[in-house]
Amino acid sequence: MPRTKNASTGDGRWTADRIGDQSGRVAVVTGANTGVGFEVATALARGGATVVLACRDLDRAKHAAGRITAETPGAQVRIQELDLASLGSVRRAAALLKEDFPRIDLLVDNAGVMWIPRQVTEDGFERHLAVNHLGHFALTGLILPALTATPGSRIVVLSSPAHRRGAIDFEDLHSTRGYRPMKAYAQSKLANLLFAYELHRRLQSAGAPTIALAAHPGGARSELNRTMPRAFRGASWGLARPITHSADRGALAILRAAVDPEARGGQYYGPTGRFEFKGDPGVVTSTPLSHDSELQRRLWERSEELTGVTYRMS
Q1: How far apart are CA 284 and CA 286, in angstroms?
Q2: Over the stretch 97-132, which tens digit does the pLDDT of each residue have?
Q3: What are the residues whose beta carbons fall under 8 Å from the beta carbon of 29, sequence distance 6 or more?
Q4: Which element (helix H / strand E) includes 282?
Q5: Is 197 one of the annotated active-site residues of the chain?
Q6: Which helix (H) or strand (E) holds 192?
Q7: What is the pLDDT of residue 273?
Q8: DSSP assignment, residue 50?
Q9: Is the pLDDT assigned to residue 53 strictly greater than 50?
Q10: Which residues pair with 136 in a beta bridge?
């Protein structure tokens, strides 16, 4: 288990400076060059972990790594090129990660896109589904041997309160009919939860030493929101500021899922304030649909078909 002590303050609030000693641990964080992913990677590196920034844009990843090492001299930060919209890139990245790190303690499936115009990836997938779910499904399965080789390892899959508006349309997974950005995004965020819960069940059934959890950052002010209406983003964040919080505050729920020794597989962490938009990190609930075991199984099997990745649990 992670060597984490004093995970909360005296008043019960959980803070990033209490993540404990992470020395000797290897953490892979996707989309870590900006926003919540960057804050998660920074906190883990500050704690002593070797952190891999798995990012699509290498120049931005290098800049992010420089910011982390400037703040924490001696921090162990690595960079891995990863484009989750390309299964070819995912396979190349996974092969290199396994070569460099036969044992991985933590995988944070953080990268994502939100509310974008309809785009189709080189593999023929709608981009929300490709980046937010299928790319992470493939990456996780391909590097799973390095995680199951590590006692106490964890996989944290990021979702969103938007999952509550989601449904899995197996007849039109790639949103070819009547595309709406929010609908496609919500579907992908529900898929994240279905994946996390089914992954944990399969790991548990196999007796693997790895657990899977889900988390979300709430209304974190980050680049992910760049396609929202201007009144809800930008330098001041306008109308959204009172109901949102900073990226480093949003990262706390993900960090708690990643390192808190009291966290358990199959749990879902997020801000505990009103509507889960902001507030202290803790266990939150997800919709009954996200716990539908038949839906979880069906999405898993479809994801294996689409990505060509079959999981080995031990």
Answers
A1: 7
A2: 999 999 999 999 999 998 899 999 999 999 999 999
A3: 37, 40, 41, 44, 51, 52, 53, 54, 108, 110
A4: strand 281-283
A5: no
A6: helix 181-205
A7: 78
A8: E
A9: yes
A10: none
CB 102 within 8 A of CB 146: yes
What gap in Å lies between CA 59 and CA 303, rounded to an integer?
31
Euclidean distance between CA atoms 67 and 33, whole angstroms: 10
284 touches 276 (CB < 8 A)? yes
Rounded Cα gap, residues 100 and 249, in angstroms: 31
- Residue 182's CB is within 10 A of a number of other CB atoms, namely 13
Asked if pLDDT for residue 55 goes beyond 80, the answer is yes
Flag the least confident range among 17-26, 48-57, 214-223, 281-290: 214-223
The single-letter code of the amino acid at 99 is: E
From residue 36, give the alpha-carbon distance in Å to each of 26, 30, 155, 183, 215: 19, 10, 16, 23, 12
pLDDT band at residue 222, thresholds of 50, 70 and 90?
low
- Closest listed residue to residue 1, CA positions, set 172, 153, 158: 153
- Lowest-confidence segment of 160-174, 199-213, 215-229, 297-311 by average pLDDT: 215-229
Question: Which is catalytic among the residues 179, 185, 197, 268?
Answer: 185
Answer for the pair 51, 27: CB distance below 8 angstroms, yes or no.
Answer: yes
Q: Please say if the pLDDT value at position 15 is more than 90.
A: no
C-alpha dihedral sign at 217, 126, 190, 54: negative
